[in-house]
Design a protein that fits this description.
The structure holds 2 protein chains of 2 kinds.
Chain A lengths: L6 H23 L1 H18 L6 H12 L11 H21 L4 H17 L24 H18 L5 H14 L3 H16 L5 H12 L6 H7 L3
Helix pairs in contact in A: 2-3, 2-4, 3-5, 4-5, 6-8, 7-8, 7-9, 8-9
Chain B lengths: L3 H14 L3 H11 L7 H36 L1
Helix pairs in contact in B: 1-2, 2-3
Classes of the chains: A mainly alpha, B mainly alpha.
Chain lengths: 232, 75
């Protein structure tokens, strides 16, 4: 950069103001979502280090009080509610498991139960459709191949999980195998892990995208398989 | 409940809210792989990097000016 021009610093400062302003507005635009993420993050921290006899129990009391309005807040997504339910469920079972009892913990436990009850269940529905059944001419064994595939998948999970610390690292590895090596078992196992994580409140969209890419990278054995692999 | 990348993205946004660009950039880096396909994430991450670079350049410029002023005053 040429520093001899006196206008350089003026331009840089003007650019600095514009960028700061952009970032401020971008964060402000996400403020409602950020407040939710902040609350989820706090609860996550509490649930990870929860000790019924320690400070986290006090933090939980504060959290339940600060975020009591969330029980009925429509701004929370179904996934957020699932995450909260999972974390509170973990904490609740920790309280029960340790057998620690105090008026505060009993109160918190009751509050968690009220939370779980009032938050309700997610209303998201999955509609499964399939074409009308056509009787097969030959009665083939359709169970054994699935059992064999499941056994292979368990072996693969054990193999990949041996050196990996977290399921997300295993999933990353599986998706690479599925896409680059066209490993069908890895593809099926990735789909299973993604669905499992989604059920447990993880955000899985980036992995779903990669699963589709891996699916499209598979060699296609029939027209039927090809149409199933197309993104919908 | 939150995976490490989601946690990092959340902390990056909280750091941006406090205008702590360096902390935000570090958290964006941690979340980078997981959100590599997320355009909004990429925009915020790259803008934060740009903001840091511009501020560093301004700092460098001002230091140079101070040095020149000192040279003139002290001979």
């Amino acid at each position: 950069m040429n520093h001899s021009l006196p206008t350089d610093i003026t331009t840089l400062k003007a650019l600095d103001v514009i960028i700061d302003s952009f970032l401020d507005r971008a964060v402000a635009a996400k403020s409602a979502r950020l407040k939710i993420l902040e609350g989820l993050n706090q609860l996550d921290d509490i649930s990870r280090g929860f000790d019924p006899t320690g400070k986290p129990a006090d933090k939980l009391g504060d959290w339940l009080s600060d975020y009591s309005a969330w029980k009925t807040d429509p701004a929370l997504k179904a996934g957020d509610r699932n995450r909260i339910r999972t974390a509170l469920g973990n904490i609740h079972s920790q309280i029960g498991h340790r057998g620690v009892s105090s008026p505060e913990l009993t109160k918190m436990s009751a509050e968690i139960e009220r939370w779980q009850a009032s938050a309700g269940k997610t209303t998201r529905k999955i509609v499964l459709r399939r074409q009308s059944e056509v009787a097969e001419e030959v009665t083939a064994d359709t169970i054994t191949p699935i059992k064999a595939t499941l056994s292979d998948m368990i072996r693969l999970l054990e193999e990949k999980g041996q050196s990996k610390g977290h399921i997300l690292t295993v999933l990353d590895d599986l998706l690479k195998s599925a896409e680059l090596q066209h490993n069908r078992q890895a593809l099926l196992l990735s789909a299973f892990v993604i669905y499992y994580l989604r059920q447990n409140g993880y955000l899985v969209e980036p992995y779903v995208k990669r699963l589709r890419q891996a699916e499209n990278a598979q060699p296609h054995t029939s027209t039927e398989n090809r149409s199933d692999a197309e993104p919908r | 409940m939150l995976n490490p990348a989601e946690k990092a993205y959340c902390l990056a946004l909280l750091a941006l809210r406090k205008r702590d660009l360096r902390a935000a950039a570090e958290q964006f880096d941690r979340a980078g792989d997981f959100f590599s396909g997320d355009k909004e994430f990429q925009l915020l991450k790259e803008t934060t990097t740009l903001a840091l670079a511009v501020k560093a350049e301004i700092g460098r410029y001002e230091n140079e000016e101070d040095f020149v002023t000192e040279e003139i005053l002290n001979g």
